[in-house]
Amino acid sequence: MMPRSLQFTTYIYMSMATFWTYDYACSLHEEWSFLLRSHWTKVKGLYIVTRYLPFIMLAMNLCMSFTPNENPGKCGALDRISSGFGMLLAVCSECFFILRTYALWNKNRILLIAVLSTCFTFLVVSLSIAVDATVAVTYATSAIPGIMGCYWSSTSYWLFIPFLFFCIFELELMILTLIRAIQNWRTNPSHLYVILVNHNISYYACGFLFSVTNVFTSLLLKYSYHTMFYNFQFMILAILATRMHLHLWQTDRHPHGSSTLASIPMSEMPSVNSTV
């Protein structure tokens, strides 16, 4: 079972690398147009981190999958670093949509404080669980010739809790977006507003479904499969967040009718237009 899981994990990582490369190649022109023509803001910095951090993650995962490594300790250290990058990637992806929700609610500071407080609480508890879990995790390498890499031979039962928090947080943001969309649908029919709401709902739905999948994966599947599905969720959400941001920026540059969601200049970060 363990050698089979190593092979399956390698196939998944190769598929992720292929998909990420294909996505980047397809959006290369738009990508560099955005990087060269858009103003330097904190959101742009967030975009760069979210867009290019998967490259480092995938390189590390493929290195662990294809490099012979008879030292479980070294392999475990690389896996922990990759997992840390994955958590950072998830936080960066969520930041885009926290800002978007804040913008949809006309910079409501009470709402922002509530959302950030929830996010911070969930993040601290999740990090505590993850750190405790990494202490309990043990790694093993395959003894079968031709099958490389290492896998979790044991882990903590409580690793499903961070993804349960992720489900709750995505539901919270989805409900806030739906409430605002229902309130403003007739009074703010701009094309940019519609795209923003559609992006938010689509992202939250994907994040929720992936998190539910990882909850059941953590509870039902073998240890060796866990990290593969964790990284898959982080990677897909990062691609969605950056692609949606790029689309929103392009729409703002070529508006269809009124593109103003708030009477605040694009240069101001907390405004709706500053999310692009």
Structure description:
- Residues 11-56 form the DUF6533 domain.
- It comes from Suillus discolor.
- It holds the Pfam family DUF6533.
- The chain crosses the membrane at residues 46-68, 80-99, 111-137, 157-179, 191-216, 228-246.
- The protein has 276 residues and is mainly alpha-helical.
- The protein has a single domain, classed as Rhopdopsin 7-helix transmembrane proteins, CATH 1.20.1070.
- 75% of the residues lie in helices and 3% in strands.
- The chain contains eight helices and two strands.
- The protein has a two-stranded antiparallel sheet with strand order 1-2.
- Strand 1 and strand 2 (150-154) form a beta hairpin.
- It is globular, with a radius of gyration of 20 Å.
Total of domains? 1
Rg estimate, integer Å: 20 Å
Number of helices: 8
The main β sheet shows up as: 2 strands, antiparallel
Which range does the strand content fall in? under 5%
Following the backbone from N to C, one meets helices and strands in this order, namely: HHHHHEEHHH
Q: What structural class results from the helix and strand content?
A: mainly alpha
Number of E strands: 2
Q: Runs with pLDDT <50, length 5+?
A: 257-272
What is the CATH domain class?
Answer: Mainly Alpha
Whole-number mean pLDDT? 80
CATH structural architecture: Up-down Bundle
Q: Helix amount, in percent?
A: over 70%
CATH topology: Rhopdopsin 7-helix transmembrane proteins
Question: In one word, what is the shape?
Answer: globular
Question: Taking strands numbered 1, 2, ... along the chain, how are they ordered across the largest sheet?
Answer: 1-2
- Give the termini separation: 47 Å
InterPro entries: DUF6533
Keywords: Membrane, Transmembrane, Transmembrane helix
Pfam family, one: DUF6533
Protein name: DUF6533 domain-containing protein
